């Protein structure tokens, strides 16, 4: 999916200027990379907010228009308001087509429901890491990596090195693993307070009899 964002140069800077910008429906941001000095920019809040809700936006090659020039950028960082649905700041990095970049991509589990661990052993498949860092050319950045768990059984521990991924990118850490765990549900019977009192010996009567 292709994303296009319009940006403008942000002249006024500082806390007060950023607050005024947010009230106008804009997000303060920074554009850096390509060996150039960082540029303070502003982008439309609504456009960026809904784009950030899509997983693919975080690994996509974005077309950023600034001063009549279009640059290829990726999202490097962003900050959200502590309790409001509001983006406070965003950082973009300009990239070159022939220079690899280091970026974190999400991991997806597929076919877990068809595995022996889930269907026959009452287990579940869980990820200890939900993303992994890769090095790739901007055009080859994967949107996500799929981990096929069709053949796993309870107790299996699978590493990324067990999967044959494409050689257009390099995974930084192959020690990320998929942990397949099994669990058993036990039936717990509810016991009423009255039944407990019935079974509890009366200390008063026992003391009187003695």
Task: Give an account of the 3D structure.
This protein is an alpha+beta fold and about 210 residues long. It is about 15% helix and about 40% strand. The strands form three sheets. It has a six-stranded mixed barrel. Strands 10-7-9-12 form a four-stranded mixed β-sheet, with no helix packed on it. A three-stranded antiparallel β-sheet has the order 8-13-11. The longest helix is centred in the first third of the chain and has 9 residues. It is elongated and about 60 Å long. About 5% of the residues have low confidence.
In short:
The chain has 210 residues and is α+β, with helices and mostly antiparallel strands. Helices cover 17% and strands 41% of the residues. Strands 1-3-2-6-5-4 form a six-stranded mixed beta barrel.
Task: Quickly list its features.
5 helices; elongated; alpha+beta; 17% helix; 210 residues; 4-stranded mixed sheet
What is this structure's SSE topology?
Blueprint: E1 3-9, H1 15-23, E2 26-33, E3 36-44, H2 45-52, E4 62-66, E5 69-80, E6 87-94, E7 101-110, H3 116-119, E8 123-127, E9 131-136, E10 145-148, E11 157-159, E12 169-171, E13 177-182, H4 193-199, H5 203-209
